[in-house]
Amino acid sequence: MTIDKSEIREREKRKRVLFLFKVITFILLLWFSVDLSKKLLPYISFIDNVLKAATFLLSSHIIISLGRLITVRFYLRKKGQDPFRSNFVLGINHIAGILNVLVLVISLMFLFGIDPGEFFTSITIVAAAIALLSKDYITNMINGLIIMFSDQLSLGDTVKIGDQQGKIQDVTLLNMVLVNEEADIVMIPNATILTSQVINYSRQHHKKLTFEFEMSLKPTLEITSLEERLKQVAFSFDKAIVKNTFTLKTTEIKHQTVQLKCQFLMAVSNKAIEKEIRRTINQTIIEIAREN
């Protein structure tokens, strides 16, 4: 769900046309509301409630749409040719959607002759109980909005969240949707994202390749020769990697095995080359493990 700036502008044009239609409909409703009330009252006893609900619904929608259009237009103009982060617009759309749902609920109250002020006052205890029961949902919603308005993550970024890695396809009020290398759809709750370690590879100038593996603790195992062999294989991809970033670290020594981590940066962003490097390094690690 990566959206570019031109697509956003086209959508905004359609939304401005819809906004104009709402304004015209609202003006016509105000113009003819008195006449409609007089003519339809003998046939529809609750016509005043219908007109009141429709007037409130349209006027509120117009105000919300106007605020949304102004905010998005200001954001697009401010960005100009700068890097564009479409999740900001996504956040504005979600806030507008929440407000529109609230307006719809209040409009239905007007339709059925319920006073919203008295209604919300009378259900204060019930509302508190509902909020308590749905606190996880509310927390996810708030965290989702925080992520949308953050400049740290954006649609299309390649990230690692906990054990999951993939490209951000969408951010909803409940979760973030990732697409991993196997094209699987992974949904991570927003609350989990803000409490987990997040690595944004798209923010790095060079992509880091990491290989974690174990080797048996045998007399034939020499870390120095292992490092030289892996380095020789990695350096065979001469222009694809940054040579002075190659490292081989011992992360943990156990009773019978030792855990190692090999890392280096790619000089170019190329999926095909990255896949070939990973395959070659992994195959070399397997061969070394068999030899030992």
Automatic annotation (TrEMBL):
Task: Provide the species name.
Answer: Echinicola vietnamensis (strain DSM 17526 / LMG 23754 / KMM 6221)
Going by the entry's taxonomy, the superkingdom of the source organism is recorded as Bacteria
Q: Which residues form a coiled coil?
A: none
Bilayer-crossing residues are 17-34, 54-76, 88-113, 119-138
Cellular localisation: Membrane
Q: Which GO terms describe its molecular function?
A: mechanosensitive monoatomic ion channel activity
What protein does this entry describe? Small-conductance mechanosensitive channel
| Pfam family of the protein (one) | MS_channel_2nd
Q: Where is the Mechanosensitive ion channel MscS domain?
A: 136-203
> Primary place of residence?
membrane
> Which key words tag this protein in UniProt?
Membrane, Transmembrane, Transmembrane helix
Report the GO terms under cellular component: membrane
